[in-house]
Each structure stands twice: as structure tokens, then as C-alpha cells.
Amino acid sequence: MDDELVEAQSALSACGVDGVVAAVERLKGQSHVSLRVDRVDEAPVALRIEPTRGILPPYDLPSEARLLRLLRRAGIPVPEVLGVCADLEPSTDRGQGCLALGWVEGEVMITQRVEADTARAYCETLRRTHTLDWQAAGLDLLPLPPAGGPALRERAEIMDRLNSFGIADWPHISRLRRVLEHRVPQSPPPMLVHGDVNFGNVILRRRGSGRSAPEVAAVLDWEQAHLGDPLSDWGRLAAEDLLGNLDLTQDARRVMQEALQRYGRSDADLHYWTLHQLYKHSSATGALTVLRGWDVDQIATMYAEPTERLLSADEPTRFCA
């Protein structure tokens, strides 16, 4: 058995999950090592292993597992938690924790052009997340934002990441930070925020055959979930759109615009959170640049046009135009 199979078998055993590992497939993902693990005569498992050095520390997979169980009980579509281990044996070089989840069949949303029906299913799931009665669901394990508001807490967390990787003074990052320094949005009472709602974290499926309406089978990667401002999630979508990462039809854009309008928030607040999330995105990409040896100038160029557009235009994002 090769090293990857041995490691997956060890991680499953540590999580208390039975079965003999037959094959392992590395999945896309930046914050953890993510694997599809096929087992002999058993259903496949999704396995997440904490990296030795990641872009979103500190990691706490037992707390994430608890959150997923509570969300599933509350009717939010998330994978089933099969087991979790806070500390792997030191023989692994990928970190200390692992999380085993039930495999969810379907298509990752980022792999297709988003039509109106897909956008509608996505926006409805996002609305259900934001409007969940988090106290009744037992989600008071998540900390409340400080008196200064959720935006300031998130900016402090971003600054911690920048300092830990020594990238706070990179020009394209520091420019966005300076723009945000004296801005704070008017935020509502705390609501549940996913924290990483990019389309790559959403699995879709269609029931039956033909052109049945899609539904969200699962929302993945809840390690950044917190109590805060739901426009933080919408700002992430807007930033992804500005970076050219969303393939939306015009009808899908209309659906997303209508869904956003129901939040009753101002363009100024959305503009703030779009800048904020572009800053956060640049900090994560900067950390990956350090870890993987990417070209800094090329990464900075990627943010130049979206930043100029946000700072010079009245519209915060394309799907809200």
C-alpha cells in the first residue's frame, strides 16, 4: 500500500470510520488537504486533513464537526459528519487534525455556467443560512462580534494572517487596507455567515431526469463560519465576480440582484463589503504565494483592475448593475 493510502487509512481509523481504503483522489481546495477516499465494499468518504501550515489558522476540526452536526439538524444542507480526530499520530507531516464526512454526489457549482434556476437554488440556501435562528439551533458556540462590529473583527483576523506570512506591506494589499481604514458599514444584529461562499463550495444535484430544477445538495467548508453581517458573504460573491470567477447568465444576475435587494441594504454597505472581501481574498492569495512560490507581480496584476474598478465606479459589482 502506498504512502497516500496508508495515510488515508490511518486518518479514517483515527476518526473511528471503518473500511479498507481502496483508492484516494486529491480534491481541489486551499485551506485543507481534501481527499475522496474509496473503500472496499463501502460508500466513499470525504476526508479533510489539517495542513502543516495553512492559510486560515487556527484550525479546530472538532468544533467544525460540532457546527456541521448542528447545521444538519437545523436543515441546512451540509455533509454528514462520520468522525473527527483532533490529533493524528506524529508520523503524518500534514498536521494534527482530520475530519471524515459522508460523500455527497452531485456537481460542484463552479464547474458550470450558472443559469437562473441554479442561481435561485443557491440564493435560497444562502438566505436560509443567514436567517437561521442561530440561538435556537445551538450555534452560540460561535463568538459574537465585538462592539465595534463584525467588519473590524474580520479585518483584525486578516491582519493577523498578513503579519504571519510577512506580506502586510505588499503594495496591492496595503492599498486595499488603507481604503478600508476609516470605513465601517452599518451592520444588522448578528446573523450566521458562512465566510467562504464561493461556488466551489456548493454541490448541486437534480432529482429525476431531464430538466428538473437543481437543488443544493451540500454547502462545504464551514471553517470560517461566524456570527456577523450577511453582506460579508455577498461581498465575497461580488469580489469573485470582479475577479472574473463567476460565469453567470444575465438571467442568473437578475435572480441574484433580486435576492440581494430583499436584504434591504444600501449600495454603500455592499460596496464596503466588496472592498473588504477583495482585501481578504488578496491576503489569502498572498499567503498561498508564499507557500507555493507564485510570482508576486503576477498576483498583484490580478487585483489591479478589480481594485481600480471598485475605487472609481459607483456600482459595487456586475451582478448588481
How would you portray this structure in words?
This protein has 321 residues and is an alpha+beta fold. The chain is 42% helix and 16% strand. It has nine helices and ten strands. The protein has helices at 3-14, 61-73, 116-131, 150-165, 171-180, 231-242, 250-261, 267-292, 296-312; strands at 21-26, 33-39, 42-49, 81-85, 98-102, 107-108, 191-193, 202-206, 214-219, 226-228. It has a five-stranded antiparallel sheet, sandwiched between helices. A three-stranded antiparallel sheet has the order 6-8-9, with helices on one face. Strand 1 (21-26) and strand 2 form a beta hairpin. Helix 8 (267-292) packs antiparallel against helix 9 (296-312). The termini are far apart. The mean pLDDT is 90.
Q: Strand order of the main beta sheet, please?
A: 1-2-3-5-4
Low-pLDDT windows of residues = none
> What fraction strand?
15-25%
Query: What distance separates the N and C termini?
Result: 54 Å
Keywords, please?
321 residues; 9 helices; single chain; five-stranded antiparallel beta sheet; alpha+beta; three-stranded antiparallel beta sheet; 42% helix
Put the structure in a nutshell.
This protein has nine helices and ten strands. The protein has 321 residues and is α+β, with helices and mostly antiparallel strands. Strand 2 and strand 3 form a beta hairpin.
